[in-house]
Amino acid sequence: MTRSPKAGLAALALTASLLALPALAEGTYKVGLDGTFAPHAMPSMSGGVEGFNVDLANLIGERLGKTMEITATQFSGLIPALQAGTFDFIAAPTTVNAERAENLLFTEGFMDTNFRFVVPADAADFTSLEDFKGKTIAVNKGSAYDSFLRERAEEYGWTVESYGTNTDAVQAVMTGRADANLAGATVAAWAAKQNPRIKLSFEYETGLVWALPFRKDDTATRNLVDRAIECLKLDGSMAALSEKWFGVTPAEGTTIVTPTPGYGVPGFPGYEEDDHTPSCDDLS
Length: 284
What we know:
Blueprint: H1 5-19, E1 28-34, E2 42-43, E3 49-50, H2 52-64, E4 67-73, H3 78-83, E5 89-90, E6 94-95, H4 98-103, E7 105-106, E8 111-112, E9 115-120, E10 136-140, H5 144-151, H6 153-156, E11 159-163, H7 166-174, E12 180-184, H8 185-194, E13 198-204, E14 209-211, E15 213-214, H9 219-234, H10 237-246
Helix pairs in contact: 2-9, 2-10
């Protein structure tokens, strides 16, 4: 049987369009995350990893009708592996900034990436940075929180004590060697959830968000996952995950429960204005 030239061109066009489809058309996402960042992803007693972002990735898969193939590796290797095509996207919490947004596509933020203090359970309430003047604050050595405190030490008059791990810094609060500990808001919440001798205190808002990164050439998949995240915000799943892993009920209007217009993070490269209405319809 002889094909006509037009039929041959049509076949080539169909092949090209199929090749251009995102990886999710095959039914599986290959997803990478850092498996040592509790409570977002950490080793489970039964093997594998568990945590907020593991659940988030699997819920996205459920909403899209896809299977998640999750691989835990070091955070430093995630973005190179994504760019090499090893992963379809990264499920690890990744702060969106200008430099990263120049090289990656991001979904809308799934959570605010704020700083938070923990203090002894019987301590007075702290409602501002000024309330920590003259206090000794324990922090993970070399972290962003360490730099934040040291850059403001002269202004606020606090003493910064750096420890090898944030666990050690929290222990300093529990044993009375420090008045407070500063860490990421979710890490602080996880610590307070597990230790009745400490409690959450003042939260410092950075104005930044965590989002999920994709390759620059994969707008279609980014947009689908963005819509799935919107659905999870609307149907209460994100709030439920926050309560499960952090012991915190999100406040109305915060990023974790509030869909963002368009696709991506407004104000950063890769953001796509769009007037779609967030919903859980027609995702799979």
